[in-house]
Amino acid sequence: MLKLKPFDTLFLGIVLLISIFGLLMVYESSVVYSSDVFGGKYHFLFLQFGWMSIGFVGMFFLSRIDLEIIKKYSPYAFILAILLLGVILFPSTFVPSVYGAKRWFVLNPSPFPLIPFIGRIGFQPSEFAKLASIVFFASFLSSKRIKEMGLWHSIIRFNLLMLSVCGFVFIEPDFTTAFILGFILIVMYFLSNVSLIYFFVAGPILALVATLYAISSEYRRERIQTLLNPESMDKMGAGYHIRQVMIALGSGGFLGLGLGHSRQKYAYLPEVTTDSIFAIIGEEFGFIGTVIVVAAFCALILRGLKIAQKAADPFSSLLAYGVITWIAVQALINLGAMTRMLPLTGVTLPLISYGGSSMIFMLWGLGLVINVSRGNID
């Protein structure tokens, strides 16, 4: 029987601590809404525990499988991701339109019966696309083939592949997820030791396109205006969400109101279990609590970067860098929005916010990082 090399237990420990704390906060933030709507305060807790269980089971297997197998089948996963992203763009019973966006594939839509204790099961193909793209591009950018291409040939090939997946996410529409995915892939491209000419050419163009898109619609302009001058916005309209976030964080003070004593979860704060869960953390655990959460993410990211740096081969290194960049950029955007450093974007806090697709695929990605750490720990 093949004996597996030891893995980074510190990295796994940090993942477990953040995830368990997230499960507690999902329960704390959802207890009022869950009781009112579902008649029981444990609804979201049970669901999140179920998603976490699937995530950790997948993490266990992906942390043990031969990475060469992952590399071999990565193109098929990437193609599947694009097919799923394409499917949800077409009208279907299985693809509901939520606030004008088509981001979910529902496995048991009406008139199919609800599943006991769960209801309807759906997942976001864009979350699977993040993981599939990271694995595929780690394989693509570390291959001998790309090194044999000319500079501009490799740049064109990279851009076409990146735009093929980011473009589908963009037209859902989901600009923020498309931006996150594109950012991850560009970081991986940069870390693959290619010429920096790509960034001098593409950087300004991408920045200009993102800026023009950000100001191209009224609701995006309102979000920017809310960030820059919240007092000028309607406190019950565009400025309501960020105002409630600031009230929650301000109410927590230095030590917080105490576990279970949040007032904003009583239907005041929108998206209380997902985008805004950090505000509940600040309200109940205060400044100290938020600092500890940020420190935990910093420890996870730094440990992950160390694993990536010491990886045995370029594929493993890029794979770990991609997953850690995913965690870092998504956490940064969520925390930036909650502290009024960035516009509100609807991005969840990794491993803490409620959500099945995000939790499952992120834990699977972290399982791959643990796999990379085998035999490379100190």
From TrEMBL:
Pfam families: FTSW_RODA_SPOVE
Main localization (coarse): membrane
Keyword Transmembrane helix: yes
Gene Ontology biological process terms, A to Z: cell division; peptidoglycan biosynthetic process; regulation of cell shape
Top-tier EC class: transferase
Transmembrane segments: 7-27, 42-63, 75-101, 121-141, 161-190, 196-216, 237-257, 277-302, 318-339, 351-372
Keywords assigned by UniProt, alphabetized: Cell shape, Glycosyltransferase, Membrane, Peptidoglycan synthesis, Transferase, Transmembrane, Transmembrane helix
Membrane topology: Multi-pass membrane protein
Keyword Transmembrane found: yes
Molecular function as annotated in GO: lipid-linked peptidoglycan transporter activity; peptidoglycan glycosyltransferase activity
Catalytic activity: [GlcNAc-(1->4)-Mur2Ac(oyl-L-Ala-gamma-D-Glu-L-Lys-D-Ala-D-Ala)](n)-di-trans,octa-cis-undecaprenyl diphosphate + beta-D-GlcNAc-(1->4)-Mur2Ac(oyl-L-Ala-gamma-D-Glu-L-Lys-D-Ala-D-Ala)-di-trans,octa-cis-undecaprenyl diphosphate = [GlcNAc-(1->4)-Mur2Ac(oyl-L-Ala-gamma-D-Glu-L-Lys-D-Ala-D-Ala)](n+1)-di-trans,octa-cis-undecaprenyl diphosphate + di-trans,octa-cis-undecaprenyl diphosphate + H(+)
Lineage: superkingdom: Bacteria
Family: Belongs to the SEDS family. FtsW subfamily.
Name of protein: Probable peptidoglycan glycosyltransferase FtsW
Organism listed in the record: candidate division WWE3 bacterium CG_4_9_14_0_2_um_filter_35_11
Higher taxonomy: Bacteria, Katanobacteria
